[in-house]
Amino acid sequence: MTMGKYEADRRKNDRATTQMDEICRQLNDEPTHQGTSYARKNVRRRQQKDQRVAIIAACSALLVILIVLIVIVAIGPADPADDGRILPNVYAAGIDLGGMTPEEAESALHLATDTTIARKDMVVKLPEATLTLSPADTKVTLDVAKVVQAAYDHGRGGSEKEFLAAKEKAQSTTYTIPLLPYLHLDIAYIDATVEAFCAANGSQLSQPTWELDGRRPAFDPEHPDLPADHQALVITMGTPDYALSPRDISDAILDGYSLNDLTVEYQAPTRTEPEKPDAALLFQEFCVPAADATMDPSTYEVTPEVYGYGFDIEQAQVLIDAAGYGQEVRLEMRFLMPEVTEAQLTKDLFTDRLGICTTKSEDCSDAWKTNLRLSVEALDGFVILPGAEFSFNVTVGKPTALKGYEEATVLLAGKETSVLGGGISQTASALYYCALLADMDILERHSADHAISYAELGLDADIAWGTRDLRLRNSADTPIRIHATLDGDEVTVELVGNDALEYRVEIKTDTVSTTDPDTILKVMDEDNVYDYTDGQILQEGIPGYEVQTSVDKYHKQTGDLITSTLVDTSIYQARDQIEVSIPTAETEPETEPETTPTEETTGGLLDILTDLFN
Length: 614
Hints:
alpha+beta; 32% helix
């Protein structure tokens, strides 16, 4: 017979008991020495008797302790970590059984499943049909007690160390007891029903179709919004080509039962998707778009608006995208209204002067005047539509000799330089001033490099094709027309439109700083080849300025200042003045005087003077 658990410990205890009995028997034996007195013998007997009693008591206590230890070892110590409850985060039928006793878990499961699995139909939703299985047909029942036992056993069954590890892991990890092993189902009935359902269902590929329903109503341009019976574009969505899998559906049903989820969504494997109608392409095929009224920016000729007929493309695409396979989408047609009408473009237009400015050039050449005339003709009558941007370079165009522009002298980088189209900045400056008065948005503006004479400082607009432009935006709700004229060397620009502003605009300039030009002396001999005299000016100096331009807005009724806005800061560079210096015999020259020009020195001086005047 195999030795049971703790058998060796019991044998050790039996040997210890036997030894104690032997000691007691030895103590009870009386000594046999001759010649000992009777009294002495009695005393010795009493002492020996007392010793035996004490030893027997000690042995009895030791025996009791040994017995208790044997019982503890045999039974095993109680596990303080196991409280007899299901580990945390253990789920079954969608219910968290963690922390429950088996009795509590059984009650909770009955409450959750008695009204579902055994009472409700299993419903399988497919793309085009629905399969329903009643509990009476599937004969479904659930062994709740075994589910609870499985939940209780989770984490148990190993060593104490393994149990503690499972308990710790359960704090952060969920575990679901599948119901399927504890369900009683008529699997044969389920499989047969699913097989028959799949044989009767499925889908063949079909592409979407569309057609117009109804007759288009007569169009009355004067009353396009009158109620009428309109047409509708009817779209029948296509269907995909797919086949149902009985095995996949059966598995989905069993999974649903296992999770206590009696509504199953089944997506059939799609092989070929039908095309999706494009609302924009359908609009092009069946509809007429509306067209806004337009205005020729140069002649102000208005092309009337055109009412359309059709549907809203964005809304139609939303309906199409939301439609299911084989469904019908009905797009109701209607009159489409243009956003801009002729009446809107012409109502109360060009009745008010929004700004006027005249610029005058001093000692301008004939070429300068020619360029002014061409730029004025390009601007006159141009209309800036509401919200539209205006570009001086785009409107006037690149100044070329083919258009008739000529080379005129302008101040460029401190030097007088001949430029094709020189002078058109005078026209742009007059327009810039008017745009400020009309409260237009200034998108781009540049001041000249040096102070100019044809416009007040801070109110000029320098133009250079490809690098410098004057760009404006009409922020009003009505168009603005440009009138431009030339009288001699005077350019007058006027902006007309519909003044709907509640305020008037005043323009203010403030010279922040002035920089005086330096004087550079060119030392020459008295008998220089060009007969320059002492103090003669070779290049006029031009002061530099920093000028701030502000726009003040005053209420038309009360005259109160509403806002004062800094719109730009103009920086004008100073240009040095160059004078001739011829030292006399009495004064020592600051620099070595020039000698009689030789061929080499004459050439160098000519180069300097040529640079100065170009």
